[in-house]
Write a structure and sequence with these properties.
By secondary structure, this protein is α+β, with helices and mostly antiparallel strands. Helix 4 packs antiparallel against helix 5 and helix 10 packs across helix 11. It starts with 6 loop residues before the first strand and ends in a 9-residue tail after the last strand. The protein binds a DNA duplex (18 and 18 nucleotides) through helix 3, helix 8, helix 11, strand 9 and strand 11.
Length: 453
DNA sequence: TCTGGGGTCCTAGGACCC
DNA sequence: TCTGGGGTCCTAGGACCC
């Protein structure tokens, strides 16, 4: 914990709904609910007028309509929210040299760090006050709640307590008095499952949690969770404000208006999701080794299957193919028994940064719109990579035949090597082997029956 | 018409290696 | 002779956050 309250947490008040009310004056002072308005939508944000009726974030829109039928129901307008968010983040960067954005409407700033070309803040409370006014001005009237405290966790709790449109400063000497009476459910990381374990043990307030025996807490919550919650409850939080974090995964998922029962359709949907993920990987210059498929059944049970390849990819065909294979490994009996498939998702993790290979030999036939293969950067140093294998028959996703191992398809190729995933037998997923790209046992093959998942 | 979409982190077991 | 121990990677599932 720092010696002064200089960690700032800013949270925009009912952000999406507030933007809608700003842009449409007839909605001001009225209940507004922003969220998915399809049959299976959930509430993203409810205005304070709607919260009076018990409408909450993450509630199904159907339930919200029951509770507050006269509210205005709107779907999200992300471009508008992004403009407002950028303006707010710019004000934060003008106040501090160290800003950690948590989401579109929330960020930490370390007021001990000077912004570019400006002196460090010497009165954090005054700076916070000024920041709130500037946020109001640059966004055309949106309000932010701000917490200022000697640590991240206390600052976040303080902004929550300050809501709406408030500022709360918690000085180091006041941390205990501030934390003690708060309900444990206020602490980030205490959700329904944790609460259900804490309540029977008589743990209701942060003070109760803080005074818990360490071993008891570990038995109740598991080691990592117990330790982090106890630290927060005891005001022991030295986590620094971190300006940038590397992405760990990229995923896309979709809940269907009606549950799917047709495996062919599921395969098509998985391809669409794979394409979405691959294009975002390429946009962000990322690639990953692990492909995961997620299936949510009508009964809400979830099954995931994943596969890790020896090389990273950002290729649509490769990811789509791996995803279809993984989908096929999810028991088809299960989904008819469970009443169909409600959601499908495709994710890629095990991410690595690309090195753009600028000394490339012309790759493939030249009209391939997306990446065929690129070299992966090592974790630390950026090292020039040898040219990519220009042989088009080994492009990712291509069907191949190997004299000994049978049918397969190319996961990745380059540097004179081809990595092939074979289709059989019985190994979910099929075995993977790497060959020299001039291996005489390896030849191109015709694509399989398109109806195969 | 109950329950989105994009993430992060943790756990636990098995494989594998030294 | 009843059979170590630690570390890492991978997979599946779950809790949680905004």
């Amino acid at each position: 914990m720092r010696s002064r309250a200089e960690v700032l947490h800013l949270d925009l008040d009912s952000f999406f709904a507030a933007v809608e009310q700003r842009d449409k004056p007839s909605l001001r002072g009225k209940p507004v609910v922003v969220g998915g308005i399809g049959g299976r939508g959930v509430v993203s944000t409810a205005s304070y007028e709607a919260r009076v009726f018990g409408v909450r974030s993450a509630m199904s829109v159907a339930e919200a309509r029951r509770r507050c039928p006269h509210a205005a129901y709107l779907s999200s307008r992300f471009p508008a929210y992004r403009v407002a968010s950028l303006a707010v983040m710019a004000e934060l960067h003008a106040t501090s040299g160290l800003v950690e954005q948590l989401s579109i409407d929330e960020a930490y700033a370390d007021l001990g760090a000077a912004p570019d070309g400006a002196p460090a803040v010497d009165d954090p409370a005054e700076a916070a006050k000024a920041l709130r006014h500037r946020v109001f001005d640059v966004t055309g009237g949106l309000t932010a709640s701000v917490g200022l405290a000697p640590s991240k966790s206390v600052a976040k709790l303080a902004s929550e307590v300050a809501k709406p449109d408030g500022l709360l400063v918690v000085e180091p000497a006041d941390v205990r008095a501030f934390l003690d009476p708060l309900p444990v459910s206020a602490v980030a990381g205490v959700g329904p499952a944790t609460l259900a374990r804490l309540q029977p043990a008589g743990i209701r307030t942060v003070a109760d949690l803080a005074s818990m025996d360490d071993d008891d807490a570990v038995r109740l919550l598991g080691s990592a969770h117990a330790r982090s919650l106890l630290a927060v409850a005891r005001g022991e939080d030295d986590r620094p404000v971190v300006a940038y974090r590397e992405a760990k995964s990229v995923s896309a998922e979709e809940t269907f208006e009606a549950d799917l029962r047709d495996p062919l359709r599921m395969g098509q949907e998985v391809d669409v999701l794979a394409a979405r993920v691959a294009s975002r990987l390429r946009r962000d210059n990322l690639a990953g080794r692990t492909v995961t498929v997620k299936v949510r059944f009508a009964d809400f049970s979830v099954r995931t299957r994943s596969y890790t390849a020896p090389e990273a990819t950002d290729n649509t065909t490769t990811i789509g193919r791996a995803a279809r294979r993984l989908l096929a490994e999810v028991d088809t009996l299960t989904w008819s028994e469970a009443g169909g498939v409600r959601l499908l998702g495709v994710g890629v993790s095990g991410l690595a940064d690309w090195v753009q290979p600028d000394l490339l030999a012309p790759a493939g036939d030249g009209d391939e719109p997306e990446t065929t293969d690129r070299a992966v950067a090592p974790a630390v140093a950026v090292v020039p990579q040898p040219p990519v294998d220009p042989t088009p028959q080994w492009r990712p996703g291509a069907d191949v035949q190997h004299a000994e191992h049978g049918r397969g398809w190319v996961w990745g190729s380059g540097r004179g090597r081809v990595t092939v995933r074979f289709e059989g037998p019985g190994t979910p997923p099929g075995p993977v082997r790497t060959f020299a790209s001039d291996d005489p046992d390896l030849s191109p093959a015709d694509p399989p029956d398109p109806l195969t998942p």
